[in-house]
Amino acid sequence: MKQRRSLWLMLVPLYVFTLVFVAGPLVYMFILSFETRAETWGVVQEFTLDNYKNIFQPVYLQTFAESFRLAITSTILITLIGYPFGYFMAKLSDAWKKRLMLLLMIPFWTNSLIRLYGWMIVFRANGVLDKLLMALGVIDTPLKLLYTYPAVVVGMVYALLQFMILAVYSSCEKLDRSLIEAARDLGASPAKAFFTVTLKLTMPGLLSGIILTFIPSMGLFFIADILGGNKIVLVGSLIQDQLLKAHNQPFAAALAVVLMLLTTLMISLYKRVTHSSELEGLL
Amino acid sequence: MKKGISLALCAALCLGLLAGCGASSQAGASGSAPAEKKGTLNLYTWEGMFPQEVLDGFTAETGYEISYSSFDTDETMLAKLEAAEGGDYDLVIADDYIIETAIAEGLVSELDKTKLENLGNVNPLYQGQFYDPEDAYTVPYGAGVMTLVYDPTLTDVEITSYADLWDPALADNIAVVDNYRVINGMALKVLGESYNVADTQVIRNAGDKLLELAPNIRLIKNDNVQDDLISGEVAAAVMYTSQVTLACLANPELEVVYPEEGVGFGIMAQFIPSQAPNKDAAYAFIDYILRPEVAKQCFEWLGYYCTNQAADDLIEEEYKSFLTLPEGFNTEMEMIENITPEAEEMHMQVWTEFKAACE
User: Which of A168, B28, B243, B273 is the least crowded, having the fewest Cβ atoms under 10 Å away?
Assistant: First the structure.
């Protein structure tokens, strides 16, 4: 009994920390979203719903659509690349698994902005990619890939792919391969065995992977800013603009609240549709 | 052995994390025997505003150590200054419009001009502007002009005005800075309006005009736009003065255009916060950089227009065209001022539409 109490006491700082630094800012943001912007600087404590009404202007709704479009595109591509990667990685020998894991981790040791600048050098007019393709005779004029939508998608996939691979990998590691053999013995084609056994059993990993990539991709607006030349307006960049340039803190707060609600809604919808209770660790 | 490697990797990882944290740095004196120590000047401005020699020289001569803290946006500066209630910093250098707000918020102290012997060196062109009409609070530092630069080898269009940017021959070939007042203002100028128009319908019209420009825009960004012009990513760019200087030094073939419609300009000015702990140090510093020979060093380093007319003649020939205004300069200059929240909101809406249309 005594031991239990001391355990509780040890946890108190953690709860306080969470309350102050996680719940606190959220509550502050929520309150801020109902206040009025001051004439020049700051906010006035006057209750208003205008900030939320303002979001319904087509131009701002458009940014939500754009954010979802980019997040969905990236997530689909990441799934298509990351699932097979994780699946085959789990089949490798232990030594190779470790090596691959190391290779997956190495990029994280570099600042993500610097990695993005690397992509800029690759995509730039007369940059690495252009020079390579021209030397091979594939193209004869620069492609102008930088500052386009595909460049942004490549950046997103690159930034988030590891999360999918690791989630799928850990699921596939645990997969009992004899079940697949059993399915094949009972006459299932390789495709059928995959869809009925492998995919079903690795679904929790895949779903966590999708959540782990979809949610951050709603927020990674700096990738769109840097590789897309600021031309793709996501909710994140709009919030930044409103906060830092237009000095409209309440509107920025309202946008952030709606974005959070939408993301939460997406996850719960997703959970309902896929009947997955395995995601509980994440949400 | 293995442990050694993983330890090294961990160390490398930590270093990478820490590398991003160094916003504030101590730029103390070193070398030549300093004058007796008098205290510290807390300087708060953007990174890289002064050459190290000037900072060191100041410390050596006056004995004030300099503690240089930097911000990345004017808004960050104002928020911090507000939190410190006008204290903590002795001297701040920031943009005109934010200074107007800071003065209105009571965060700026009035200057005692008797402590500034060299104040007469300031070019009157940059004085008495909207943010400080009586010059009671500020001394200008660098001035910038919104300039249009293009590479004649990359386009056949001869650009003399903002309106020329709308030429379809420049499709997907223009870079602009990520500043909605500047770019919306460009459209306002083409329509013959003021940057600071309050009528939201006029701003809306400018927005519609801007949508026609969208197909020509290749990128919108604030940092290092000159790189994209130099590398040939774009043929024309609307940039800040320091970027123009860098671009032209890298590629002398570039054409600099002062648009026919008139020129927008901005001023970075110095002010002493209301509760500055060491105002004497601030006065000493302002006066020090107002000396013509020090100002020359500063402006050649900074790449913005020189606001010190006594320094104009000292500036080296290779920088002259970038740091001083050309003779017979079209004085149709207008500054971007603070506007009403309604006008501001319309600007933001129009700007968001424009950015999305560029894709």
Answer: B28
